[in-house]
Prior knowledge:
The chain has 167 residues and is α/β, with parallel strands linked by helices.
Amino acid sequence: MIGLLKEKNIYLIGMPGSGKSTVGRRLSNATAAPFIDCDEEFERVTGRQPSEYISSEGEPAFRDKECEILGELSKKTGFVIATGGGVILREENRKAMKDTGVVIYIKRDLKDLPVEGRILSVRNSVETLYEKRRAFYEGTADFTVESSLLDGMIAKILAFIERTDIN
């Protein structure tokens, strides 16, 4: 597993609240690969949480900064990276992830997605966001896993990665 990640990253995509960060931390532990949470990286770089940035600067400015941050992260290799839920909306982000790693779509039942503290999920319905993003999640993913049982999900992702030649 470690050798597999020396030249590529594992990118986790999915709706806000789907469990990307939780899964990412568990994958990091299982693979000994460093973990990066894009929302935490966004806050480190800008000094503001994504929701604060969206409120003050607007979603287009947020997407520009998010794209810049993912571009920098995709220059690194050997990481497990939990992306923001809307990162797949931009072609350059989808390309960067596909070119530099394997993309895992964490799919969770919409009724189970939390909306508190997630400005875009509050402004729009979760269903509206999903319909806008579904084709991008499905088209970008190398592998899709349902986020019902965490341990089973981690095992499925690890099995996929082990049988996949991503280098």
